[in-house]
Amino acid sequence: MLSQNKKRIAYLSALTLLFSYAELFLPRFLPFFRLGLGNVAVLLSFSLDPLSFVLLTVIKAVASCLMSGTLFSPFFLISFVQSVVSGLFMYVIVKLFRGRLISIYGVSLLGSACSAVIQILLSSLYLGEGTNALLGPMLLFSLFSGIVTAWLSQILHIPEEVPELIKQEKPEISAEIEKKQKTKTICMISAILIASVAIMMMKNIYVLLASLALSFAAQILSKRKIKIFPHISIWLFVIISTLMMPQGKVLYSLAGWNITNGALLSGIEKAIKLSALSALSQCLASVRPTGEGILSIALAYFGGLCKILNSSEGNLIKRTRSALSAQTIYE
User: Global pTM?
Assistant: First the structure.
């Protein structure tokens, strides 16, 4: 029998995934910025004890990267650190002021700003200090996203009692087959990690391009669809960030901004590496934990909530409310 606290953390973790999933239905005007609607569930979870809240932020980061196929890519580190640190920052503010002097909107704005700063700082460790030039636009966007998430946390309410999770009957798997599946998964993870380290050590552009092609081929063999837009976003973000730190021969000048040979080649190299690692990570997106762990339960809840959301009628907010008000979640 699962403890109520364990079920609640798993359910709240599933809600972070649900709100992030709902965000995919919204138009995206800027390729590099996301509203981060998963934080709506975090804003509704300040009643948890400190350890449970930290666990929620950890599960939120791991589960979202596992679902998106970026768990084994550099993006996981950024997602993990910003999720935990910004979440704890908001939690401390709430506990210190206890609703006095600062509202949930203020808490959300501070959390969004903290998240933006962490993302830029961590990105600059790989892309260089040119990334810091994007901090201003990121902070401006965080003001908007902070207000939106705070507003949604006020109009959406989660149930006091965690809904029941009904699992479908699954065919029995022999111990031998289960062992083979685990061995296969371990071998896949090991191969991906070794390949990822090798790619990070490469310098030759042509070798990196060949590695990128092989990574895409591996993604296709893993029956994962290649989505070009995220890779275009990666390339634009990385190359523009790198060009802000000129080095080498000037190729072109525009309004006092020099596009240099060294910066361009460095940006292309880093962009190829990130694209290849992202494609490799997609190969393991189908890997799902089993058993009665919090991560497994959270993903099961998420699957059921998505079915309710997709089968409901009305606008996105009404459909989300239908999922939140469900007394039983079917997987």
Answer: 0.78
Strands (E), 206-267: 250-254, 257-260
Q: Which residue has the tokens 């596992």?
A: 66
CB-CB contact of 208 with 272 (8 Å): yes
What are 244's two structure tokens? 């802000």
Whether the Cβ atoms of residue 327 and residue 164 lie closer than 8 Å to each other:
yes
Task: Tell me how far apart the alpha carbons of residues 133 and 108 are, in angstroms, rounded to a whole number.
Answer: 23
For residue 145, give the nearest of 28, 2, 25 by alpha carbon: 28
Mean pLDDT score of the chain = 82
Q: Classify the C-alpha dihedral 210-216-218-221 as positive or negative.
A: negative
What residues does each domain of the chain span? Answer: 4-162+290-330, 177-282
Q: What is the pLDDT of residues 176-199, one digit of tens each?
A: 776 777 787 788 888 888 988 899
Band (pLDDT 50/70/90 cuts) for residue 1 is: very low
Secondary structure letter of residue 134 according to DSSP: G
H or E element in which residue 330 lies: strand 328-330
What is the Cα–Cα distance from 88 to 168, expressed in whole angstroms?
36
Extended strands (E) in 37-174:
164-166
User: Is 67 within 8 Å of 300 (Cβ atoms)?
Assistant: no
Burial class (CB in 10 A: 0-12, 13-18, 19+), 14: buried
